[in-house]
Design a protein that fits this description.
The complex is a heterodimer of chains A (135) and B (332). Chain A is mainly alpha-helical. Helices cover 51% and strands 9% of the residues of chain A. Chain A has a two-stranded antiparallel sheet with strand order 1-2. In chain A, strand 1 and strand 2 (30-35) form a beta hairpin. In chain B, helix 7 packs antiparallel against helix 11. Classes of the chains: A mainly alpha (135), B alpha+beta (332).
């Protein structure tokens, strides 16, 4: 790729930041240059974010219907999934899955709640709550 | 004692941190040279490691390997690594080193760093950055993937250093202990290139790494037409994201490798290496072409064309194989 062909698509994911990429100048030398992003990157990133969003919305609806606990919603909202959350909290997946049961979740010890809150970067109060709508 | 720190914008965090750290200590070395000497270029398809229930595909050596291999290969270079069980100890030790005027490298999670744009904040635990100063509880950071320096509060930095999960950083910090006056390029460059070429060519018997790994992924893509369309789209998207978004991406690493080959050719006075640099650039272009095809198909939500995408990947694999074959004999 030549330096003047480096895409400058002003990626919204980069929010005004730039990335460095190596490209050819006219004399055939490879050197560092800046890019404001490439549409292809935005397409696949948006797709991944949408997938997490979809999971979060789905979990919110089920949580409001009392079919799952707020934990599942917050997990997806904070961009985690079950294997990640289990690993981050040092538990088996089936242990975390049990805490998706609203009744079990309501009885969780302060210690367990704190651990979830910490890895999800939330306060315990927020962790127990459900928002009206997922933005 | 406190030499002002020179921030430079790099393409990749780990190689950027390493070269900035060495340059700060008067050993002038470029980012691509670090990448090349550490034999950072790779390809690995790791279906047993799942991220958001999709397989991991890597276009370079695993995190921490680049800096470790580099410090092992370069004679007279010692980098001290420290990990901490207790976050308080990690903080104390970091402050101690900063007060001594040291520039300190850290492994962190991306998710907890507020200066990252929101869309980029994923739970990726193997990010690298440098800390060059502190004022009260605000840390001055040179993050090589940003064009400017940034600041982070102690609270957020601690969260990022002690994030849990896969590749947990455990507060890892590193700093230079001893540094050589110069690097023996005549010896190291051919050695590093041969290593990269062997590891990625068919000489590597592992079916999931290097050229063999690419063919395996191509097979997998071809079979996607029998899968649930949603999964197929996510799988393709994941490949492209791993390639272009996370870190520098597959094409980005090929371009960086090209920069390394060219620089190596100049140092050794070897014109062949300059030619290979242009070959590596062309391969990078093909990777981007592949990414474009995959992303375009995803956007149209069609299910035709998996065969074409797989063929494109095979074509790239063929080009890489050719390059590795020629590089194995470099310096013999």
């Amino acid at each position: 790729m030549k330096k003047n062909e480096v895409p400058q698509d002003k990626s919204h994911a980069l929010a005004g930041e730039t990335k460095t990429i190596y490209a050819l100048d006219e004399s055939g030398k490879v050197g560092a240059t800046e890019t404001s992003g490439w549409d292809v990157e935005d397409i696949v990133l948006d797709q991944a974010l949408e997938e997490l969003q979809r999971h979060a919305e789905d979990a919110l609806v089920r949580a409001q219907a009392g079919k799952t606990s707020p934990l599942e919603f917050h997990m997806y909202k904070q961009r985690m999934d079950l294997p990640m959350l289990a690993q981050a909290t040092g538990q088996f997946q089936w242990q975390v899955r049990r805490h998706f049961d609203p009744r079990r979740f309501a009885k969780l010890s302060a210690k367990k709640l704190n651990r979830y809150a910490e890895v999800l970067d939330l306060t315990v109060d927020v962790l127990k709550e459900l928002p009206e709508k997922h933005e | 004692m406190n030499k002002p720190f020179d921030h430079s914008h790099a393409a990749h965090c780990e190689t950027g941190v390493t070269s900035a750290l060495l340059r700060h200590h008067q050993l002038d070395i470029s980012e691509p040279m670090v990448f090349g000497l550490a034999s950072g270029l790779a390809y690995a398809y790791l279906p047993m490691i799942k991220i958001n229930s999709l397989p991991l595909i890597s276009y370079r050596m695993p995190p921490r390997m680049i800096i470790k291999i580099f410090s092992r290969r370069v004679d007279g270079l010692t980098i001290n690594f420290e990990k901490f069980r207790n976050p308080k100890d990690g903080l104390r030790r970091l402050n101690e080193k900063l007060d001594q005027g040291e520039v300190v490298g850290l492994q962190t999670s991306v998710f907890f760093l507020p200066y990252f744009p929101p869309d980029m904040r994923f739970h990726f635990n193997a990010h690298n950055l440098l800390i060059y100063g502190r004022e009260g509880d605000t840390y001055q950071i040179s993050d090589p993937v940003f064009s400017h320096v940034v600041e982070v509060r102690e609270k957020d930095l601690q969260k990022a250093r002690f994030a849990k999960g896969a590749l947990a950083p455990k507060g890892m910090m590193y700093y230079l202990d001893s540094i050589p006056e110069k690097i023996d390029y005549e010896y190291l460059i051919p050695k590093a290139i041969r290593f990269t070429a062997k590891m990625n060519s068919r000489k590597n018997p592992l079916p999931i790494s290097g050229v063999r790994g690419m063919h395996r992924v191509a097979n997998k893509i071809k079979k996607l037409k029998n899968e649930d369309p949603r999964y197929a789209r996510l799988f393709l998207g994941q490949i492209v994201r791993m390639q272009e978004e996370i870190g520098t991406g597959g094409a980005g690493f090929r371009y960086m490798f090209a920069a390394f080959l060219q620089e190596a050719g100049e140092i050794l006075g070897n014109e062949e290496l300059n030619e290979e640099a242009h070959a590596a650039m062309a391969i990078g272009d093909e990777w981007r072409e592949f990414a474009l095809l995959a992303a375009r198909m995803n956007k149209q939500r069609g299910d035709q064309g998996f065969g074409d995408i797989a063929d494109k990947l095979r074509e790239v694999a063929g080009l890489e194989e050719g390059m590795y074959k020629r590089l194995v004999d470099i310096g013999k």
